[in-house]
Design goal:
This protein is of the alpha/beta class and 576 residues long. It is built from 18 helices and 23 strands.
Length: 576
């Protein structure tokens, strides 16, 4: 037996020529159509004679050559190349080949390309169109269809290699057989097969060869893949059927995955459709309750104390209160009391006159004056030196500010919002924070809940940061979190709160190697409830709290016990 293969575009798969005449030309009635205006309507006839094929030129043309030379009629030999316009047809002998040898590295390459589609496309219809393109290139055929089953289990043509408005150019008989049997159906020559030759769809469509394979995932039928050929040169084999079966398995997984991604995106859109309050993303009851309280006090002019762990978003809540207040059009000035100490913080807050101290080459008004008629946000107020606290108290009581080195005061109208990740009441009992200043600042206190108490806000925030960093690093082609990552986000205690979550996702995006983001790398050693063992989870969480308290107390264990609100004896017992 002999074969013919198109070496220019690879569309014709090498198959056995079974002694029939083959006509090649531009007209669509030919067995092989050369789509080129330079090609004659009917250029060449291949016919079988005396045990071999011969090629006869039917229309004189400069673009029809055999091995680069003109001819009228010639016996074909293995390795001959028939050139017609820009197409090259390689003539050869058919050899028996195993599935592995027939496809070899080409199959592996196309399986790899096939699987990578999930990384590039979320839309199901576009994905399946790409699958069809790969199947036609890898296995061959004139047309391809992918059917998905409707609610009643009936196949609906979902995508096609042909014009979507074209008729149903496939065999219903073969589609139903593959669906009912649940196994691939392969017909090498439908016109001569007694099982199908009388089928109307076979004869009407002039189908020569068909393979149809069900798409099954977890024993559930999702649809079918159908490849048909009306080309006399394409006769599907058992190896082609095996290849299509392999692709159908992968296609089923891709369909499942893309549908899952689609469901996730719909859920994310519903979540992200929740209106944010001045950049604060929240859906949990505790956060909505806190925001309601913050909005209530914003309309007043009282000083506000924000308490909450590090990373809970106290700065955002301070801005929220300012923007909801009558001072929203006025300045919002921020100072972190933990970054400046003593005279530096005093000068920053109250200003100084020229020559007040070494290096004071110019006068400086200070942040109280900068915030006049607006809001001054004193972050980490618990770290302010106790000597400076007295001056702050006097300013709050009188409204007047005296710059360092000045002999006169300046009147200001400033609303104070303070924040601390420590409990000021405990600092008062420790003697490190003035009681009178505490009551002056604590006209109302708003407590910010830690992230571990915010339920599904964790995932809501995680997707907010994912979209933010995806936009910044779009070349990474990140699609979503992996299922394990979503579980990790929801179960992890996040001792660093929203700041830790944001940094974790940023790091995961920057270092990502796959489209599904993995963030559980440091994993269960950090996750106090990863193994769902109550005792070990409790111990792990206590350990985190103790370590954090000791670190924030600069190693002072008595202060650490105070931060945790437990006695010294209990604290030392927990350490042991």
């Amino acid at each position: 037996m002999f074969t013919l293969k198109n070496t220019h575009n690879g569309n014709l798969h090498p198959v056995a020529l079974q002694g029939q005449d083959i006509f090649i030309g531009r007209d669509t009635e030919n067995n092989i159509v050369i789509d080129s205006p330079e090609c004659p309507t009917v250029a060449v006839r291949l016919f079988f004679k005396n045990g071999s094929y011969r090629a006869r030129l039917l229309h004189p043309s400069k673009v029809v050559l055999l091995n680069g030379k003109k001819f009228k009629e010639i016996k074909m030999s293995e390795g001959d190349i028939l050139t017609i316009a820009k197409e090259q047809l390689l003539f050869g002998k058919e050899r028996t080949a195993s599935f592995k040898k027939l496809y070899g590295e080409t199959l592996l390459e196309n399986v790899s390309l096939f699987a990578q589609e999930v990384c590039l496309e979320r839309d199901l219809k576009k994905l399946l169109h790409r699958i069809i393109e790969i199947l036609l290139k890898t296995i061959g055929g004139s047309e391809a269809f992918i059917f998905l089953l409707d609610a009643d289990g009936k196949p609906e043509k979902f995508v096609s290699s042909r014009n979507e408005k074209a008729g149903n150019e496939f065999s219903d008989t073969i589609v139903q057989e593959a669906l009912t049997g649940g196994k691939p159906v392969c017909i090498p020559n439908a016109l001569t097969d007694p099982r199908y030759s009388n089928a109307g769809s076979i004869s009407d469509l002039k189908l020569r060869s068909v393979i149809c394979c069900p798409i099954i995932v977890a024993r559930k039928k999702l649809g079918l893949i159908y490849l048909g050929s009306r080309d006399a040169l394409t006769s599907f084999t058992g190896d082609d059927c095996n290849a299509l079966h392999l692709f159908a398995i992968i296609a089923g997984m891709l369909i499942n995955h893309v549908e899952y991604i689609s469901q996730q995106e719909s859920a994310i859109k519903r979540l992200t459709g929740i209106p944010s309050e001045e950049g604060i993303i929240a859906q949990s009851e505790c956060m909505l309750r806190m925001l309601k309280n913050a909005a209530a006090v914003a309309g007043t002019d009282i000083h506000v104390l924000l308490e909450g762990e590090t990373g809970t978003g106290k700065d955002l809540v301070a801005q929220f209160i300012h923007k909801k207040s009558g001072r929203s059009a006025r300045p919002f000035v921020v100072v972190n009391c933990s970054t400046l100490k003593g005279e530096l913080l005093e000068s920053e807050l109250f200003g100084h006159v020229k020559g007040a101290f070494t290096g004071a080459t110019n006068s400086h008004d200070g942040l109280f004056c900068a915030a006049d008629t607006g809001t001054l946000f004193l972050d980490e107020i618990g770290d302010m030196d106790i000597a400076l606290q007295a001056k702050l108290l006097r300013t709050l009581e009188t409204g007047n500010v005296r710059a360092v080195g000045a002999s006169t005061e300046r009147a200001t109208n400033v609303r104070i919002i303070c924040a601390t990740n420590r409990t000021l009441k405990k600092l008062v009992s420790d003697g490190t924070f003035r009681q009178d200043l505490y009551y002056r600042l604590n006209q109302t206190t708003i407590h910010l809940p830690p992230l571990r108490e915010r339920g599904h806000d964790k995932l809501l925030l995680a997707y907010f940061f994912l979209e933010k960093y995806k936009a910044a690093y779009s070349f990474k082609n990140i699609l979503d979190f992996s299922p394990n990552s979503r579980q990790y986000i929801q179960s992890y205690a996040w001792p660093g709160n929203v700041r830790e979550l944001a940094n974790t996702i940023l790091n995961a995006v920057v270092t990502a190697q796959n489209p599904l983001l993995e963030i559980a790398g440091e994993s269960d050693a950090q996750n106090p409830i990863a193994d769902f063992n109550f005792e070990s989870a409790t111990q792990a969480f206590q350990k985190q709290l103790i370590e954090k308290a000791v670190a924030e107390s600069n190693g002072n264990k008595d202060k650490a016990a105070g931060l945790l609100g437990i006695s010294r004896s209990t604290f030392y017992r927990m350490i042991s």
